[in-house]
Design brief:
This protein is α/β, with parallel strands linked by helices. The chain has a single domain, classed as P-loop containing nucleotide triphosphate hydrolases (Rossmann fold, 3-Layer(aba) Sandwich). It has 9 helices and 8 strands. A hairpin with a 2-residue loop joins strand 4 and strand 5 (82-83).
């Protein structure tokens, strides 16, 4: 039977970067579910300029084809044949992802895609409801977090390295709003599974956190 590692946690906790590296170390397939929601949010933003209307968002789902393709040690996200891996990391897209993820039809649309990958592969899958909803029977469940201030600082540095001009205070406020939306939405809110292991990386380096995840994943 394929083995699955579920990593949940708030925005900016490093799930994507750490999850991808953990998958590489284990020789597993990496599934970034947050990127899937970002891709839907990106498409809707381009078409309507906002993601406020559930009716408009749901109407676009039939126009969206998402593929995850391995490119060396990384996973690229393609939307209708175009590589959107970089553009979906924008803060506006991040906020859009938070909104569209609260719509049940969107979650249903992406749910099957996520489950199908896990059926035939050993996977490391990260998101906000992986251990609670998508893979409730995952072999190992991890909840990765850090203080909001640390996450905002890391996010600011990440965007600056990518050549974007950002303001830390704005990033912090956006992150607080995203945390509130993710934990208070009615459908599949962000929460730690009862059988998950908590990892707080606030005072840990990337390498220290990765080593901890690797040891926990292997122990299980």
């Amino acid at each position: 039977m394929p083995r699955s590692i579920a990593i949940d946690g708030p925005v900016g906790a490093g799930k994507s970067t750490l999850g991808a590296e953990l998958a590489r170390l284990l020789g597993y397939v990496y599934v970034d579910t947050g990127a899937l929601y970002r891709t839907v949010g990106h498409y809707v933003l381009k078409k309507y300029g906002n993601t406020y209307s559930e009716e408009d968002v749901v109407a676009t789902l039939g126009e969206i084809n998402i593929e995850q393709r391995l490119a060396g040690d990384t996973t690229k996200i393609y939307l209708n044949g175009s590589d959107v891996s970089a553009v979906i990391r924008d803060d506006a897209v991040s906020a859009a992802a938070s909104r569209v993820s609260g719509f049940k039809r969107v979650r249903d649309f992406l749910f099957a895609l996520q489950r199908d990958v896990a059926k035939g592969n050993n996977v490391v899958m990260d998101g906000r409801d992986i251990g609670t909803v998508v893979l409730p029977n995952a072999d190992c469940k991890l909840f990765l977090t850090a203080s909001c201030e640390v996450r905002a600082k890391r996010r600011t540095q990440q965007l600056e390295r990518a050549g974007q001009k950002v303001n830390y205070n704005e990033v912090l406020e956006n992150m607080k709003e995203r945390d509130y939306n993710d934990t208070n939405r009615l459908i599949a809110p962000l929460k730690m599974a009862d059988d998950a292991i908590l990892i707080d990386s606030s005072e840990k380096s990337f390498e220290e956190t990765l080593q901890e995840l690797y040891e926990l994943a292997r122990e299980d």
